[in-house]
Amino acid sequence: MSAVEKTAKIIDLNLFSGSSDTMRTNLGGFWEIVSVDGTESGDDSTTTTTGEDVEWKEFNYLDLVNPALDRTYRSGPGGDPYIPPVPVSDDVAIPTFKFPIRLYGDNSQVTNDSHWHAILMGGTFGDVSYRAIYNESVWDDYWFETGLPYTKQEVNALVDGNLVESISQITYDYNHYLREYQDYTTDLDSELLIPNMYVIEMFNGVTSTDVGTAQEDEIEFLSEDTAPEARVFDQTMHNFVSLEGTAGGLDTLLSDVNTCWVPAPSFTISYPDPGDGCFGALTAEEGIPDHDLHGYLSQSVPLTYLSASTRVDTENMLQNIYFDQYSIWYGTPKNTFDDMENTKSLFPYYININFPKFDTAVDPGTGDVAAAMPFGISIVDNNFSSKFLKSLKEVFNNESTSLIPEEKEYVLSLDYQSASLDSDIDSTVKTAQNTPLRTVDYFGLLS
């Protein structure tokens, strides 16, 4: 897995052998940090592995870790091990249950009741002192595994970098040179006033536009039947894109995408076949298609002065853009940025931030790929993605007074490929170290 992406595990310290959760240490079902240093030979290569890894010790109710303990299972009257759990309270948001556990000692290891009491509750029996197995503390049972991307620089350094699929990088795309537009953006006081490709895309194909008084983080469909032909836009965003109402045809700025035109190397011009319906769509002097968007950016935008209120409000509103479920979630009705992949090539240049999206998650207990997805599904089904993203940003940016992030320590385990200067193969590196992470209670976040 590490050849495709980095593997990361984040594990609560309570889940390790020797932690304060003494019952777990004695019964099983815990992690251990182990040293790794070895060589594995494959079909056509040899891989070396170094560092520290985490290993999971399974809980087996018939084979417990502590030799003084024989077995354990859920038990009820008459020793029935299959009684259902009993709800603790119906007045809580998170279902909580309790069920009795029967723990058996090994007759060959336990002398009598006093010995058994010392083993379980702590104390001295004879000349041996025992650390308590049982206590009434409450413990977290929290860990998860996820994939992390390699940087492009890391991939370039790897011998087998072609095997990596998960890559994050920040680059740029420079498609067209529009001198007037470039001069205009260079002289702006704030980059937030540069014509925003996402805001322009919102008007693409919208034939009936209403300008309302929606909140700054709210753009609503008028109805599902007419979306996206009819939309309600914030007044400031409409003023920003329409240049205070002086620019018309906002719905067609991006509609004349010429899919027949393909730029050839060295900026030479590839002319289409006159019979394919695309002939004449090129500007030979510039070697670029002649689009309405280019006239808008190089003529209308530089020559139009935005009012002070529009400039101030735009700078305030575009500090953060939330890409919620209505941004790129393909389906019906058509969402705001469905066409960005086709229209982005019309814009002169832009920063390109690439990172992989995660569609699934793994349940730590069962290994079920889809088991952890209900969190995401619940957010989408309840149309909660905009508020959820906004809450994440405000809480972890210390902008919330009702919920303050708490720094907690976890073990961060990483498994990844690394290049060696004196070797023609990549090495597997595994690390496991205590790492402080900022956390909040999930239900506190939702509320």
Overview of the molecule:
Helices cover 22% and strands 26% of the residues. The chain has helices spanning 22-27, 113-121, 152-157, 179-186, 197-202, 235-242, 292-303, 308-317, 325-328, 340-343, 374-381, 385-396, 442-446, and strands at 6-12, 30-41, 46-57, 69-74, 86-87, 97-98, 101-105, 123-125, 128-130, 143-148, 150-151, 167-174, 208-212, 220-221, 230-234, 282-283, 288-289, 349-354, 406-419, 426-439. It has 13 helices and 20 strands. Residues 214-224 and 258-289 have low confidence and may be disordered. Helix 4 (179-186) crosses helix 7. With 447 residues, it is of the alpha+beta class. It folds into three domains: 6-58 and 140-166 and 358-446, no CATH class; 67-132, no CATH class; 175-256 and 291-354, no CATH class. The relative contact order is 0.15. The radius of gyration is 31 Å and the shape is elongated.
Brief overview, please?
With 447 residues, this protein is α+β, with helices and mostly antiparallel strands. The protein has helices spanning 22-27, 113-121, 152-157, 179-186, 197-202, 235-242, 292-303, 308-317, 325-328, 340-343, 374-381, 385-396, 442-446; strands at 6-12, 30-41, 46-57, 69-74, 86-87, 97-98, 101-105, 123-125, 128-130, 143-148, 150-151, 167-174, 208-212, 220-221, 230-234, 282-283, 288-289, 349-354, 406-419, 426-439.
Question: Any key phrases for this structure?
Answer:
single chain; 447 residues; alpha+beta; 6-stranded mixed sheet; 3-stranded mixed sheet; 22% helix; 26% strand; elongated
